[in-house]
Amino acid sequence: MFADIITIGDEILIGQIIDTNSAFIAKELNKIGISVYQITSVQDDREHILQALVESKAHADIVIVTGGLGPTKDDITKHTFCEFFNDELVEDKKVLAHVENLFAKYISNTPISDLNRKQAWVPSKAKVLHNENGTAPGMWFYEDGTTFISLPGVPFEMKHLIREVVVPELVRFYDRPHIIHKTIHTYGMGESAIAQIIEEWENNLPNFVKLAYLPSLGKVRLRLTAKGTDYSILSSAIELESQKLFPLIGDIILGSEEDEELEETISKLLIEKGLTLSTAESFTGGTIASHLTAIPGASAYFKGSVVSYATETKVNVLGVPQALVDTYSVVSEQVAMAMAQGVKKLLDTDFAIATTGNAGPTKGDSDANVGTVYIGIASPTHVFALEFNMGNQRERIVQKSVNKAFELLKKEILKM
């Protein structure tokens, strides 16, 4: 069973906003056994939208459209659906009452206009999907074996409708195959090197099990996918094949949680063990802290960060001895260790991460080559720092270092 996703909006095509809606929808559909065949972004243009709908109808069982449902003249999705289905707009009394209630309750300082009331006009052939978080309702059409679903483009409105309305309705409406994923997280080895080691294993996978390499800076995820009608067979096969990887590359596997990033695993470990963490970041500029605080509940273990970008901040705030800087340079093992110890003491935590290095393009306060970084880890029992060469492109250096820092931290937490 296949679905197409169509996003409508000039703002996507000119790069003004990033299309995160499609990724979310694809993930939710996959969970219920629906594979995404194609994702298309189109202009707020009648002919372009009609063409996309015609093309999707030719090969997809389900077509989900987001965007173009606002009250202004440039939002033409409803009118285009009417043309596509040879339909007309009619006023839905329930939608009108909902729109008027939203304005009375939350937007009382702005009088409701006729444009706002036009949100209650929907194609007569559509089943209206109640959008409790906004004024634009979702719409459900079914014609010639294909389901068309139109949703608002505002992410939090779309997500609520997908989770609470669309997915449950699709589950009731369709018999679907099972799709099972298991993702193995590896760190410290490149995609091609891993592929050579596991080549024989990969060649002997069952024909209903597929492997995908998902490389990023400093890590590679190996995603196993099984698709079929018998859940128990699929589940057993995925588990058996994933276990076969450990004798081959077990030394670089740091988890197998489905769709869970390493920092999420670290978050769970720290909470489970009742441990705390702080960070002292130089060239990473708070990126590690940003990753951590993006996880709900981080306040249970993460006490804070010192972005000690300048040398004097390392000395004056973290207590790094000036003699260490003078003797070994600010980009050194000794300074990374002192930074980790300093922030651990300053914020009274069990663990601390420290980063110092040269991300370029110039050398800054050190003569270290661009790409040279030191990552320090302080634990309740010891402190250490390791040197790495992360290449010569600034963004890659930072992200690879963040991933390596999380990798080192997890290993230390697991020793507790």
From TrEMBL:
Return the CDD domains for the record: cinA
Its domain of life reads Bacteria
Q: Where is the MoaB/Mog domain?
A: 4-173
Instruction: Report the InterPro entries cross-referenced here.
Output: CinA, CinA-like_C, CinA_C, CinA_KH, Competence-induced_CinA, MoaB/Mog-like_dom_sf, MoaB/Mog_dom
Q: What is stated as this protein's family in its record?
A: Belongs to the CinA family.
Name the chain's protein.
CinA-like protein
